[in-house]
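Notes from the 1:1 (GR / supervisor)

We went over the backlog. Supervisor wanted to see one worked example end to end before approving the batch request, so GR pasted a single chain during the call. The sequence is below; no edits were made to it. Supervisor asked that the structure be written out right there so they could see what the output format looks like.
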Amino acid sequence: MSIIDAYDAETEEILKPSDMTRRVPGFPEVVVAAFQQSAVDSLVASRRPDVIDELRAGTAVPIYAVRHDGAGAPRDIAVYRTPLGGSIAAAMLEEIVAKGGRKLVFFGSCGVLDSALAAGRFIVPTEAYRDEGTSYHYAPAGDWIKVDTAARLGEIMADIGVQFVSGRVWTTDALYRETRGNAQKRKIDGCIAVDMECASLAAVSQFRGVPVYHFLYAEDSLDGQEWDRRTMGSVPPDDHARYMELALEIAARV
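Structure output shown during the call:
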C-alpha cells in the first residue's frame, strides 16, 4: 500500500474533529486564517478583538472575533493564525469547521517559479499539484486538485480593485527538497508558484463541503540558477497589516 491507496470513502474516521473540540454557540460563519503571526498581531494592535476560543497545536492558538464594515455587508469574522504545512493547517481547518466556521479565507506567502512575478504580487491558485500527503486522505489519488473557489475569489479581488494573477501552484511539504529538477517539471506543467498548503486545504474543503478561498503573495524566487530570497523574512509589518485587511474585506463578501 502507498499514499495513492490512502483515500477511504467507505469507513469513518476513528478520531473525529468533534472528539477534540466543541461547537461554539455564535461562532462566526466566516473565518480568516493567516500564516504569518505579524498579520494577526497587526489586527490585535489596531482593533483589540475579543478572544472567543482557542485551538491547540502544541501551544494555545487564540481565535479572535472582529466586526468588519467593508463594501460588503458588515459581518462578524473569526481570525486565527494557522501554522505552516498542509497537515497541521488541514487539521486546524477541521477543528474550525467543528466549532461552526462555514467559509474560510486563507492567505500567506509563496515562492515563485517565474521571476517576472514581483515580490508582493498577489496570486490566486486555480489548481494545485499534490506533492504532499494530506490531500490523498481526502480525495482520490491524482496529480492535481482544482481550487473550486478560484473564479469567485478572482471576481471579488477584481471588484475590490486588487491586481493579481491566477494560475497553478505546486504544493509540497518538503521545504528543503524543492529540487531544481522538480521545480523545472512543475514550471513546464504551468505552475507559477510553490506553497506548502494549497492542495491539502482544497482537498479538505471539497471533502467537507466548506468553501476555502485562498490567496498568496509572492516572496522568494526559485526561478534561476540560485535561490533568490527577495523579501522572504523581511516583509514590512505594514504590508502584513494590509494583507490582513484585504482578507477581511474578502471575508465580508464571500
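Supervisor's comment: The chain has one domain: 25-253.
Batch request approved.
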